[in-house]
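Review form for a predicted model. The reviewer records the input and the model, then writes brief findings.
Reviewer: anonymous (R2)
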Amino acid sequence: MSSLRRAKNQLGAMFKEHGWVRLLLTHNFHAVGRQAFRSGQLPPWILKRKIHRYGLRTVINLRGPIDTPSLIMEREVCAREGVAHIDLRLSSRDTHRPELLLDIKSLLEKIEYPALFHCMSGADRAGFMSTLYLHWVENVPIEKTRQLRLWPYWHYRWAKTGLLDHFFDCYLAARSERNLSLEDWISQQYRQDDVRGSFSSNPWLDSLVDRLLRRE
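Model under review:
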């Protein structure tokens, strides 16, 4: 990539993708258990620094296979540093297909660690993925994972982003009646429409998350 093109991408990441907001929040970077980290979208120079400092072997982008300025530079850094880069599309305001969730379990079991999970802000999708990681890889009970919280991650449970919490709440309610693993519940009982339909959000918090914070 030429120097001019790289400069344009950096400006695009800073303003079009609201990188200045993430700079104020220090990119929402946190350790997750023994082998993983979570964050918002990192500028390429900070991603390189994290790769070297923590020995990262895999970066999982939860924004999906899109070509934003930030992600173009991120893939370039990972390729130069010999780090596996995976694009995985998760939603911050909706439920997920059972097949996708089970594919995530398989993915978490086979990637090389240490790994970084990131979305745009590091608040919602990164928290959802970190919860799955802690439960399926480190065997932490769902109720003790504590990855979907206002502090220090800026996740809003009562906005539409709370659907991510509600997914796990529905599982815990089902588990109290029948001792199912999360994987078995997803395979046997989980219905996207049922989880979606049993959740309601606060309109004021929806406006805060969508318009002011401009969450992706």
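Findings: The first helix runs from residue 3 to 15.
Further findings: The first strand starts at residue 30 and ends at 32.
Recommendation: see findings above.
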